[in-house]
Amino acid sequence: DEIQFNTGDVGFIIICAGLVWFMTPGLGYFYSGMARSKSALSLIMVCFLAIAVVSIQWWMFGFSLTFSETSGNPLIGNFKYAFGHHMNGPKDVLPIVPNLPISVFSIFQMMFAIITAGLIFGGPAERMRVLPTIVFIFIWTTVVYDPIAYWSWSENGWLRKLGSLDFAGGTPVHIASGAAGLAYSIVLGKRQGLGKEKFKPHNLSNVFLGTALLWFGWFGFNAGSALGANARAGMALLTTNLSTAVGGITWVLIDYHREKKLSALGFCSGAVAGLVGITPGAGFVSPCPAAAIGLITATVCNFGCKIKGKIGIDDALDVFGVHCLGGITGNLLTGIFAQKYIQDLDGGYSYKEQGGWLDGSWNQLLYQFIGCVAGFFWSFCITFCLLKVLDYIPGLNIRVEREAEVYGIDQSEMGEVAYDYVSYSQADIMNMASAVSITNN
Fold first, then answer.
1. Which residues form the Ammonium transporter AmtB-like domain (predicted)?
2. Residue 53: partners with Cβ closer than 8 Å, 6 or more residues away
3. Full-prediction pTM beyond 0.90?
């Protein structure tokens, strides 16, 4: 018989997919504002490249490798759904989402893969070539994101069978992207002039715009991971907003204690840290633990961002300090605060897992730790090797030349700039000033 899907759930997930799509342009503005003006446009560009490349990869075989249920393999799926096959028939259904058409579930999950690829480029910002990122995104999504997402979310994935809890992507999204960003930063080396020049965000208005889009889109990211319009989605929405708010205030107060200034960048960084921290536990924890998660994650990330200077790694926009450390913190705190009754709010749609320490499941923290370690080392090691290989391929060398870096990634790689005044040299400015002076005289 033809399957009758829940139209309310279908409409809800379609809306959530649109919200998550908005996160990637938001990320572009967030990163762009944090960078210097001469490389601002390239960071928006690579985020949109992630949208395009991952959309194609996901349609070709990415979704199938991540969610096909027929392989029985604990490490990776098969090609059952490659190129959109077996998605639109009247009897096509995934056991883990019987209330949704496979096509709707696929497009929702595709948005997660897109934002994950985009997150990576905060690490190598201001010194990476743009062209190789097209190849990198395609291969990285296939060999890093798809396997880790399969481990965490597929009914056959070994992390899920082990009992590791990950509601919306602590390991596949944040730990994986943070570890990859760290590897990218190490392979590229430091930016020219680091430690001698001031590397300050050029446009905090864009940082706020990006934060707003991320915060807004994250409602679909976390609430949509309930995979239905139900009370669990509402709880995930509530915990997401609360953790974000607490994270933003926490970071600001820590910085105020140091500098006696209220930092706009600090608020935005803390809000994103709160979003990252609550991601793995949004559908497992109640509001009070969510506030604690926001506070603890923002604190850990604030101090974690100071590490890079001490160990000599140039993670330009703190993708490791916020996303990887935030994802690890959120994963571990989920093992402490997760409760079974929160899972039951979805009315029985999802696969039921045990709670955390609050429910007396003392081994849950170990499962969460195993997920963190597996996700980090798989992403870091594969990314490191992938970049080394790409760098040896003619035309795909991953770092710009010294002169191009000083000139700016936008102009050297794209021939375009975010702001017209960036394209003027000092000589041009002097000539224009002379012309104005002559005219006035």
1. 12-419
2. 117, 134, 137, 138, 141
3. yes
